[in-house]
Design goal:
By secondary structure, the chain is α/β, with parallel strands linked by helices. 61% of the residues lie in helices and 9% in strands. The chain binds adenosine-5'-diphosphate (ADP). Adenosine-5'-diphosphate (ADP) binds next to helix 15.
Length: 627
Amino acid sequence: MMHGGGWWSYLSYDEEQEPPKVDRALLRRVWSYGRPYLRGLIGVMFTIFVISGLGVVPPLIIRELVDVALPEKDLGMLTVLGLGMIGVPLISALVGILQRWWTSRVGEGIIFDLRRELFDHLQRMSLRFFTATKTGELMNRLNSDVTGAQQAITGTLVSIVSNIVSVMAILIVMFDAEWRLTLLAVAALPLFVIPARRVAKVLRQVTQDQMEHNASMSAILQEAFNVSGALLIRLFGRWDHESRRFADQAALVRDYGVRRAMVGRRFFAALGLVSAFGTAAVFWVGGFMVIQDEITLGTLVMFSALLTQLYGPLSAITNSRVEFATSLVSFERVFEVLDLETDVPDPEQPIPISPAKGKVEFSDVYFRYQSDEVEGLEAVKRWRRTADAGPVVPQASTREWALEDVSFVAAPGELVALVGPSGAGKTTTSYLVPRLYDVNQGVVAIDGVDVRRIPFEELAATVGVVTQETYLFHDTIEANLRYARPDAGRSEIEAAARAANIHDMISALPEGYQTLVGERGYRLSGGEKQRIAIARVILKDPRVLILDEATSHLDSRSEALIQEALEKLMAGRTTLAIAHRLSTVRAAHQIIVIDEGRVVEQGTHETLVAHDGLYRQLYETQFETVA
Ligand code: ADP
């Protein structure tokens, strides 16, 4: 129905759809973000009372003007009333500035709190989460949704309270002046309470949909415009495809925007009519009463002035459910993220291991990249929206377990080489030690302590990783190195770089260690990046080293530099190496041969070569060429 013809098609959005309820728990939680700003909020309330109270003064002044000053030709009073007409808005404006100051402080404070909490929480999520979630989606939650959430507290709250207070003040003055006319003016309004409730529901749903589409649009942007994505698009010439993909999503955002704008329009139109009828009725009956001398002309004029002020806030109040419900959507989306549990939780009763000796032990380890449980942000969203649509479809997998019954021990200081065909499970094995993932069964232990019991900071300090792909932040080389140890002195950094055979290269750069690197900085070659990564881990000085040897063949000089750097790095540390070089397997104290997720052979190079098995085969086909 979204493309169903003209504007009228937008008027009848499926109003029967049942969105999630606004429950007490949600409200309490939302309130917990406002509470730290209680003083600011009280200040805001104070200004609301002042401004709303002042709102009824001008009509009162008008009545005095018409009923007293003019008939009695009292020039002095006329002047006073005139000054009042200037003074009231002046004070209102000044208090308005104060209100603005308080609301923005509360609002921005809440944004800050939410952002920080989200960031802290997301940082703790596992690798599994980040592989299952689009970066753009996350950015969206940290930006638009957080902003929307603060709008709920400041914007909506201020408008609801302002309106209520205004209406009360106006009604009091009106009732005091002529209660029958007042009843006449508001008689039809109760009729609108029930439709308002329905409109609120629908609007909330549409808003939620719109935000989801917005988030998807951000995700596409992020994918297309980061350096790797842009490169890929260019190399494959897929501009049209990407443009279409983006346009499709942007079109959804557009349509939902229109839809949102149109929700409840019939309702609001009807509400507008009621105020017109109300005003007409008041003029007619009120005029009659003036003619009958039941009320003064001033009262009627005051009524008409008050009426124009009344209907706006009154319909806004009937509508406040709608507004409030809408603004809660952002909070819900933020809470959704905060409620995601990390599947690599902090240990409840941590066991410290430092100073670690560095024994690494796998006992009967089973691991699976399962996705039969809810994973990532998109999945959460899907799950919330269509709870009865069945579980999220599991990812297709060639075999049930990525690792099955894997056991081995690396004694402190030993070099253990993991070898096996591609897809065997070597990388997966290496991921389990620093807890990028947790095992499904069995135990991975360091110094006899289950890694799941080791405090995160200690685990991170104990295990160092050199991957094939080196990620550098957009910062200076020095800062990138210092990331491993923030308190490292300049001489230590240089020593590490020397050990990694990269110092000379860095020194030769015009800006030396201050050269900016990273995605948008100086382009280091693959081999140089590798050596920076090695220097970084040397600085960190972990007891256990996970090493994923590069498969891409570098030139022999680069190879030799890296090889030498690695040897220095591995010396004295327990090393788990995903080995591609003959020199590494030769030097290994033991070689673990993995195939299809299982350990199929185990031993030293000599014993394994003597045995006619998978290792021998790999040795003949893979390693010889690299040597
Ligand atoms: P290797 O490092 O030996 O080449 P991996 O440990 O990378 O092998 O992969 C082992 C198996 O796990 C492969 O079948 C691979 O397809 C699968 N796998 C790896 N990463 C994931 C992931 N994030 N989600 C699902 N399956 C994965």
